[in-house]
Each structure stands twice: as structure tokens, then as C-alpha cells.
Specification:
Strand content: 5-15%
Oligomer: single chain
Radius of gyration: 15 Å
Number of helices: 8
Structural class: alpha/beta
Length: about 170
């Protein structure tokens, strides 16, 4: 099986769905955010604070291009598409955009304190979501709406989609 890459805004369920989908497919899971943290021995929050977002994005790119090409479900960070280099790379792979409405994102993340961009009160997150929309579409092969669906339902939808399009 060619690896499947999950993209989408923070709170779209990429990591949770990746684990559910991996169980269904008998695949491994890689998470580019966890790969960055493990490789650089710092949390994303610490990387943002010490080195800034540009450095984090460079680290993230290195992790992306070193993901397993087969038998893996890869959960990416919400901003993976901020780099045209990443969009180009992703567009040649099996990528699914987990599209989530703003209302659903707010509901899911209302108590989250670990996401540097979500918790940056100077950032307009709705504007960021809107600005990223076209980039997610450019990078993806498939789009799945996640609102009002649980991770198992989303994983089942992905399995059906992949089977139909083989």
C-alpha cells in the first residue's frame, strides 16, 4: 500500500484518524509533529518560542520527505502546506484533506493549550484557515468533510474512497 498522508487545519482530527485508519489497514503511523519533537528533542511549543515558525517549518519539511513511502498513515501538522515545496511534494502522493468547518474546529480546540498558533492571541485563526484552504486543495488528492463524524466514521470513509479509486 502506498502511504496515505492526512492534511488539514489544526483540530481536523489528523492524528486521531491516522491511528484509526492504521488499525483498519494494518499500517504503521507517523506523525510529522512527533517526528520533529523526537528528532530535535524539543516540543513544538519550545521550537516556536526559541527559534520561530520558519525554523519549525524547515524541520517539518525534513521530516515530511523522510516519511515511509509505503504501508504508513502519516499525520501532518496543520501548517504543512505553508511551504510550496511541501505542497509540490504532497501533490505527488496519496493525500487526503480532512476538511473541517470553523465552528467545528473551535468546538474541538476550545480547551487546547498546547498549540502555539491556536493560543497566539495576535493571530486571526479564521483568516488563517481561509488562507490555507486553497493550499490544502492543491496538495490533496481527496477531500473528506469531518464535521459531525467520529474518527472511526472518517477512517471508514477513507477506506471506501481508496478502494473505489484504486
Amino acid at each position: 500500500m502506498e502511504s496515505i498522508y492526512l492534511i488539514g487545519f489544526m483540530g481536523s482530527g489528523k492524528t486521531t484518524v491516522a491511528h484509526e485508519l492504521a488499525k483498519r489497514c494494518g499500517a504503521a503511523v507517523q506523525d510529522t509533529d512527533r517526528m520533529v519533537e523526537t528528532n530535535y528533542e524539543l516540543s513544538i511549543k519550545e521550537i516556536f518560542a526559541a527559534f520561530g515558525e520558519d525554523t519549525f517549518r524547515a524541520y517539518e519539511h525534513q521530516m515530511l520527505i523522510n516519511t515511509n513511502p509505503a504501508n504508513t498513515i502519516v499525520s501532518t501538522g496543520g501548517g504543512i502546506i505553508e511551504s510550496q515545496q511541501n505542497i509540490n511534494w504532497l501533490s505527488t502522493h496519496q493525500v487526503i484533506y480532512l476538511k473541517t468547518s470553523w465552528a467545528e474546529i473551535v468546538r474541538r480546540l476550545q480547551h487546547d493549550k498546547n498549540r502555539p498558533i491556536w493560543n497566539d492571541q495576535t493571530r486571526d485563526k479564521l483568516a488563517l484557515l481561509n488562507a490555507r484552504e486553497e493550499k490544502y486543495l492543491q496538495a490533496s488528492k481527496y477531500v473528506i468533510q469531518t464535521d459531525e463524524k467520529n474518527p472511526k466514521e472518517i477512517a471508514n470513509e477513507i477506506v471506501r474512497l481508496i478502494r473505489i479509486n484504486k
